[in-house]
Amino acid sequence: MTTHFDFLALGGGSAGFNAARVAAGLGKSVAIVDAGPELGGLCILRGCMPSKTLLHVTDVLHHARHGRVLGLRIPKAEVDMKAVRARKRRIIGEFAGYRVERMTSRKYTLFRERARFHDPHTLELASGRRITADRIIIGTGSRISVPPVPGLATTPFWTSDDVLDLDHVPESVIVLGGGIVACELSQFLRRIGSRVVLIQRSAHILRDHSPEASAVVQQAFRDEGIDLCVGTQIESVSGDANGVQVTFRHGGKTVRRRAKHLFNALGREPVTDQLGLEAAGVESTKEGRIQVNRWQQTSQPHIYAGGDVCGPFDIVHLAVAQGELAARHAFGVKGLKPIDPALLLNVVFTDPALATLGALESELQERKQPYLKASYPFNDHGKSILMEEHRGYVKVLAEPKRGRLLGVEVVGPSAGELIHCFSAPLAMKATVFDLLRAPWYHPTLAEIFTYPLEEIADQIKPSK
Fold first, then answer.
1. Would the pTM count as exceeding 0.85?
2. pLDDT digits over 384-436, tens only?
3. N or C, which end of the chain has less CB nearby within 10 Å?
4. 144: closest CA among 101, 100, 182, 174?
5. Domains of the chain from N-terminus onward
6. H or E element: which one contains 33?
């Protein structure tokens, strides 16, 4: 038996569900195919929401333990991991429950089976049933990758799923990787009381960000007691009844670190290998990442992709935007614009946090694009000083003739919130002069931006 739909979302995560939602809103018949053990997608179940729930807990714990600098006497601050996990599960259950309620409504036909392409318009379910669709989006997400590090595949290791569901404080953990997940959860583990070793291959953690910003986070990690090893070459991983050992080269020497547990945070890979992309005529890279154009179309114009399967970044708000754009383009909605790469936003929820918007300075240099820059440190700003938040800085990049905003970098307190001061201005192609016309309340963290804005404004010659 074959059932036909106007639109089919292969995967019910951020890209797939939001594409389905838009298509249903356009009056189309919509199917969602999702074989995951739970509905809700990576962000809700095992990504953004559980991790940020736990990071907030350890932020509060950290401030309580360091209250003396503020004149507070807090004699004891401890973590109850069973209670923390129970609260996290309750909150995530509410988020997931709402998503499930929407996905199981009459707007969609939901298939809880694995599926693969039989041809460019047909998917064959695990039960043998076939469903066809005029338009399809692939949004099957990503999974933990296991790079070819000698011994890693045969050594028991944790993934982020395991760390996010801990009900106890591990004695010691070696973390492999220096990306966002590795850094956020390394700090979480250290703050609940684990001994943490973080081993990163690149010269600095968070290698997609500037070395200056990463250096601020690195120093905070070391000050908190994380054994941070960067610029390494991992030679082998092994394990026994007493724990795990990682052997690596660092500074021209062979170094070994031991711990009770190993956390593999070396990245994720697209879940596309079992979809039968060849039968659909959909092209992908050797790593399995689906290639798309600016409208999210694959090599088959009626098949779209969004989220982790195509990138360029595994970020939820980008996946949502890609899914929405794909569905609107699929049904000819007028006036569409592709996603603007100049407006990409990135936040790392470490403490201090790190956030960027628009172009990075390294990107402008690579393009040989002229720019002006100015920065200002939090250790010389009134509100951050009284908060005892001295780490980091804000940096603004602008074009040199009119002062149009090009990019912003923040590393410091509330960076993930502060960066949004520039979201609308950057989208509206505002200048530093536009922002200086707006009031900035004193004393606030946000008013720190007035210093680099004024510095750039002073460098621009007024037009005659």
1. yes
2. 999 999 999 999 999 999 999 999 999 999 999 999 999 999 999 999 999 99
3. C
4. 182
5. 2-144+269-330 (3.50.50.60), 160-266 (3.50.50.60), 341-459 (3.30.390.30)
6. strand 30-33
